[in-house]
Amino acid sequence: MKPALGRLAVSRVSKAFEDRGGAALVLDHCSLELEPGTLTVMVGPSGCGKTTLINLIAGYERPTSGEILLDGRPVNGPGADRLVVFQETALFPWMSVLDNIAFGPLARGTGARTEVLERARTLLGKVGLRGFADRYPRQLSGGMQRRVELARAIINEPTLMLMDEPFRGLDAMTRELMQEHYLRLFEERPRTNLFVTSELKEAVFLGDRLLVMTQKPTRVLRAIDIDLPRPREFHMLTSARFREIYEEALVALHGDGGPTLVRSS
Amino acid sequence: MASALIPPPGATAAGAISLRGVRKVYDSHGPAIVAVDDWTLEIASGEFVVVVGPSGCGKTTLLNGIAGFDPITGGEIVLDGKTIASASRSARPGADRIVVFQNGSLFPWKTVVDNVAYGPIVQRRMSRGQALREARSALARVGLGDVAEAYPRTLSSGVQRRVEMVRALINDPKVLLLDEPFRALDAIARSVMHEELLRLYDATRKTVFFITHDLDEAIFLADRVVVSTSRPARVKHVLRVDLPRPRTYLMMASREFLALKREVADAVHEEAENAFRLGEPELA
Amino acid sequence: MNADAIGSAIGRRTRSASARTSWATLTNVHALRGVAGVVGFIVLWQLGVLFHVPVLAKVPTPVDVAGAGWHVLHDPRYYVDWLISFKRVFIGFVLAQVIGVPLGLFMGWKAAFRYLTFPVLEVLRPIPPLAWVPLSILFWPTPESSIVFVLFLGAFFTVLINTVAGVRAIDERYVRAAISLGATPATVFRRIILPGALPAIGTGMAIGIGITWEVLVAAEIIAGRNGLGYLTWEAYVAGAVPTIIVGMVSIGIAGYLSSLLIRSVVARAMPWTRRT
Amino acid sequence: MADATLGAPRRRIAWSSLGLGAAGFVLFIAVWSLLVHFNVWRFSKLPDLLSVVREWTSRTPVYGVSLFTPAYYEDIWASTVRVFAAFALATALGVPLGILLGWNRIARDVLFPLLELIRPIPPLAWVPLAILMLSGQQSAMIFLTFIAAFFATVLNTMLGVTSIDESYLRAAYCLGSRRWDVVWNVVLPGALPYIFTGLQIAMGVAWFSLVAGEMIAGEVGLGYLILNSYVELQTVTIVIGMITLGVIGFLSSALVRLIGHRLMVWQAR
User: How close D142 gets to chain C, by Cα (Å)?
Assistant: First the structure.
């Protein structure tokens, strides 16, 4: 069941930052469109403008030119209809796990306190953390924190979820389990998702569509449709179709010469 | 490039490690925890061995045992026929077994060239001036000549790891011990580092003991992949990887690669889930 | 390089297996060394005085000090001094928190207000609190209020600077996340800024209480007629040298107890910083 | 909050912040002057800032102390010499002791509890004893200032040594270091950021204690100037003394900071 809402249109968006001695162009006439209820994955070299794009869509920053429309309405600032799950978790360390999840609905005054807490509890169970409601975030492992973060976003029923390398820094095995949790939540109730990662395998495994981005200034280099069936299962990682798509993406991403490490300062 | 790094392949036919029934118990706080139990493996001279297992499963304990950072509780570790660690004697760290660490350990207060020259200088193997010259030329040979005077913190993590490998190799160690050295890098930088590491390996043929929890990384690099169980760590499965060398990143999408992966994927996934359950009540 | 050296260098976090088995005895060894250090110090002190080591010539022996201490403990005025000093520290310190914390929160939160006020405070801050004593005495109607004012200044700048720094160190992600989730500015202040700055405020308090006691001693010597600092000075003027040291030790204990109290209150106010 | 969104308008804010800062000063001086001028509550007891500036810059100061009188510089010189002597002594003794305590388990076990017992005694409580122990007011002042700076230096150095990342020590041993190589190449530079934090604090408390010492028992110096002016009811000179202390205190901290930055260029990213 695809939702009716959640169509995101980014059209010809540019973003420049003032730099020492001039302006650095991070995004250059970048356009992309997300269909309601689909999961789009963005991959590209680190330090390219992926996070900037997420910040623009979330409304934390304004584009230098171009416009961003969600369901036809321009984006003018942060809002609970577009939620970001950050690279490092942004759980409030001073609130219990349950208070963190309930924060959004309570801050906006949607629903009575007891009802919100009840929903938060249910969601906590869904991400496999029943019994951790009264812990503080720092008392949880990295993987558990990411799951709380997911729950804190989903309880607000956002039309668009922005995932900014949400599993980065987790070890490969915890990461796989996080992917499972994330896929289950998405497939149970599809909503528009934009997922940024630098891990190609993860990208192909999760997404309906893959956007390969260029170096700065960032544009979409290639869009690849991923026609693997849903629900996704881990055995698909070794299927022939997965391999084909993966190889296509690998070549698109690395180009002919392969990537190079540049000195950053 | 790297081929000129001291010494030529096979110059020192050394670096064979035997791990015989290695055991490690922690018992200071509360009940004893068996971190490693009866861990046995023969590593040939010049072999590239990768140990895969969930994090916190005792892989690092094992590596610390070989490096001499941490004594072992039982069994023995033998290097080139000499017992370097057992229950009764703990190994000393030394320049024959150099570690490259997870988060990097370049001294931030020394420039790149001073870092690389550090080993030869403190071992009194050469004069300061000579060590610096050697360091400079070693850096130049792997394409890092123009960062020689930079401080590590001004460099990307990928470049830092490359410098750290040069710092290790210039001492002509028998064994390289790598403890998830690329964990902090993003996937793309990591794939570059894999190729760089393999170039250095092909040129020097040191024994490499590499720890990771990333199966793709393991298969791509290794001659043998050893799957270690979660607490206590034991050898669960050994996979021989016969992909030809030199290897290229496109091999990761090859049929052979995926076949190898399928062979151990279940074993690894099973251990991941074990560790996940074990790890649940534990702290971050 | 002996084995012990490597042990202390690299086994600091991961003690050796053999050491682990005898943890209890090891703890005792560490504690015993500490006791030995303190006893050794006292013995050296006693011997130094007895053998007329130059600097220690006029210093009383530990035995004399103990005797004077015994005497002082039986003097009811001593306990009054404790109460008076504690009262001054308490009022000065609490005033500094009541004014400094809200001001610091506001300065951290509103950039324009910070730009307006911070430079003035930065210029006033390096002036040592004691340099304020004369003006304070002139300005305030009673000696008591002038002492409290100087104590207030001592703690005020510390807590203010720490609070401002604490607010500014709050990770932008928390604020962004809260705004995204629909929080109003008031909610952001109450549920993000305030708790987020609390650890830094706690640090400011812990440092501030120490400074308050230091200032108290000097303020009492310069402008007081009672209190533990004055007790010490009075003993000096009267030539009762052992009592000087009794006074010093009393102040040390008082300061230590206050820090302990502050630290435990702070820790209690921030349950999330505990890891278990 | 580290504001990542301010990329473009940052420079404009820098200018407006300067303007606001200046406005803050004007406001502060104006409010003070008005309070004094209209004698609000007890504010007439304080000098107004204009007469302070007039006296300070006068060639013929009413109370004998201004930018043009040698007496002013004698006081500055006396205080500065004391602080720097005490500070140098505290650094020379405190840094090695701190490294020893951080590096050697036995030394830490023996000495640290003793240090922790003595530390809570405020440096100023040492005033009477210092006067008795050290003949001569000069050495008593320096001792007092030293005590204050010493503890900050020792404790921060020790903390610096114990918080050096284990992997640096391990890497150093791996590469074949001996014990002294490690002390010189890893422990000292690794602890340097903490050492300089300690020195920064030490400089602050040194001035703090010195002023108190000079007020209580001095015969020359800025603290003495302030107290003496109070006794003689020269409120204008009190404020001159206070401002001078503020400026010199700020400059000496800045000097420590500057040396720290010079020694730790490697910290820049």
Answer: 14
Six-digit token string for D28: 């502060």
Token digits for B235?
């050898």
Rg (chain C; Cα; Å): 24
Q: What is d(CA C140, CA C85) in angstroms, rounded to the nearest whole number?
A: 19
Among chain C residues, the shortest Cα distance to B284 is held by C275
| CB-CB neighbors (< 8 A) of B63 in chain D | none
Output Rg (C-alpha) for chain B, integer angstroms: 19
- Domains contained in chain C, CATH given: 3-59 (no CATH), 68-273 (1.10.3720.10)
- We report the CATH number of the domain holding residue A14 as 3.40.50.300
**Mean pLDDT, range B80-94, rounded to an integer:** 85
As a whole number of Å, the end-to-end CA separation of chain D is 20
Chain C residues with CB inside 8 Å of B90's CB? 3, 16
Residue D256 lies in a domain: yes
Among A88, A94, A104, the residue with its CB nearest the CB of C181 is A104
Q: Contact, C155 vs C208, CB < 8 A?
A: yes
3-state secondary structure of B224: strand
At residue D139, the pLDDT reads 87
Burial of B283 (0-12, 13-18, 19+ CB in 10 A): exposed
Nearest CA in chain C to A155: C181
Residues A31 and A47 in one domain: yes
State yes or no: pLDDT of A194 exceeds 90. yes
Q: Per-10-residue mean pLDDT for chain C, 276 residues long? A: 34 38 61 87 88 80 88 87 92 95 91 88 86 87 89 92 91 88 89 92 90 88 85 87 89 90 89 72
pLDDT(B240) > 60: yes
Where does the pLDDT of residue A20 fall: very low under 50, low under 70, confident under 90, or very high at 90 and above?
low
The CATH number that applies at residue D167 is: 1.10.3720.10
Q: Which of D165, D167, D170, D175 to mutate to test the interface with B (most CBs of B within 10 A)?
A: D175
Q: Given the structure tokens 């881990």, which residue do they identify? A: A234
Tell whether A77 and A175 lie within a shared domain: yes
Structural contact between residues A16 and A64, judged by C-beta atoms closer than 8 angstroms: yes
State the fold for domain B2-96+173-279: Rossmann fold (3.40.50)
The token pair at B70 is: 């941490």
pLDDT tens string D51-73: 888 888 888 777 777 787 888 89
Q: How many domains does chain A have?
A: 2
State which amino acid sits at residue A35.
Answer: E
> Is the pLDDT assigned to residue B30 strictly greater than 50?
yes
Residue A42 and residue B265: Cα distance in Å, rounded? Answer: 26
Q: Which domain holds residue A73?
A: 8-81+159-254
Q: Which residue has the tokens 């703690």?
A: C155
Residue A24 token pair: 């650095």
A166 prior amide bond cis, ω within 30 = no
Output the pLDDT for position A188.
Answer: 87
Residue C107 φ/ψ, nearest 5 degrees: -65, -40
Q: Does residue D143 belong to any structural domain of this protein?
A: yes
Q: Nearest by CB to B122, from D178, D189, D266: name it.
A: D178
Q: How many residue contacts between A and D have a Cβ separation below 8 Å?
A: 11
Binding-face residues of B in 3-32 toward C, CB within 8 A: 24-28
pLDDT score of C17: 37
Helix (H) or strand (E) holding A157: none
| Distance from C-alpha of D85 to C-alpha of C1, rounded to nearest angstrom | 37
3-state helix, strand, coil in chain B (%, to 5): 40, 25, 40
For chain B, the distance separating the N- and C-terminal CA atoms, rounded to the nearest angstrom, is 42
ipTM exceeds 0.90: no
- Ramachandran region, residue A212 (left: φ > 0; alpha: ψ -120 to 50; beta: rest): beta
Q: Are residues D88 and D163 in the same domain?
A: yes
At residue D43, the pLDDT reads 79
Q: Are residues D100 and D34 in the same domain?
A: no
